[in-house]
Design goal:
2 domains, 11 helices, binds magnesium ion, 6-stranded parallel beta sheet, Four Helix Bundle (Hemerythrin (Met), subunit A), alpha/beta
């Protein structure tokens, strides 16, 4: 297996996503309580989450676009309180700034530095993290998102878009991610090589095994560097 480029998942691969989402929900709630108390009273965190889940079910056409889902959620919450959409962008910005205030795993930055010095890295994410805001954009040659591509992992199209952007054949691209189905399963079907990031030491039970299983990104960097040497 000759690896010429890396395709990298973001959420739960470079940072745990749940704390960032939770914090973003709380920040938005605090802002609404200060600026739009009627909306905060009608849609406390749990109700806002339920509204977002309802929109997710109701609008499968937005399944690949978490930003659009979130904007629509905020718009609906305002509308339910008889308020127009004048403040939707401000509310989204409060949420989105906190969503991007992620705390990387300790191994993420050293591995990114080592790997990006060795070969091109493309991000492939279903989420709406902004690498520019997070301060990691310089490690990535390209950024591929479900939002822009119109297809979410595990659809082959998002992986094909990443390989096309890199100009590297799928067989020479190693996709690295934490999700057995979205990352490993999707990338394998699209013809990429696969590395499963298994931080919890879980057992593999999702069909054909990944080409590589790593416990952290240090292990990935060591593997790539040893092969390149
Ligand atoms: Mg992930």
């Amino acid at each position: 297996m000759r690896i010429l480029a890396i395709s990298l998942d973001l959420d739960d691969t470079l940072w745990p996503v749940e704390p960032a989402i939770r914090n973003a929900e709380l920040r938005l709630d605090a802002w609404l309580r200060a600026e739009h108390p009627d909306v905060a009273a009608k849609f406390p965190v749990a109700a806002m989450r339920a509204l977002r889940d309802a929109i997710d079910r109701e609008r499968p056409d937005l399944a690949h676009d978490f930003t659009a889902q979130r904007l629509l959620t905020i718009e609906r919450a305002f509308a339910a309180c008889g308020i127009g959409d004048a403040h939707v962008a401000d509310a989204f910005e409060i949420y989105y700034a906190a969503r991007n205030a992620v705390e990387c795993y300790a191994d993420a930055l050293p591995a990114l530095a080592a790997l990006s010095a060795r070969m091109p890295i493309v991000s492939v994410s279903n989420g709406n993290a902004d690498l520019e805001r997070i301060g990691l954009r310089h490690h990535f040659r390209h950024c591929i998102s479900a939002r822009e591509t119109g297809y979410a992992k595990p659809h082959a199209a998002i992986f094909e878009a990443a390989c096309a952007r890199l100009g590297v054949a799928p067989a020479h691209v190693l996709h690295v991610g934490d999700d057995p189905l979205l990352d490993v399963g999707g990338a394998r079907v699209a013809g990429l090589r696969t590395a499963w990031l298994n931080r919890s030491g879980a057992a593999w039970s999702h069909g054909p095994s990944p080409d590589l299983t790593i416990a952290d990104l240090d292990e990935l960097a060591a593997w790539i560097l040893a092969r390149a040497a």
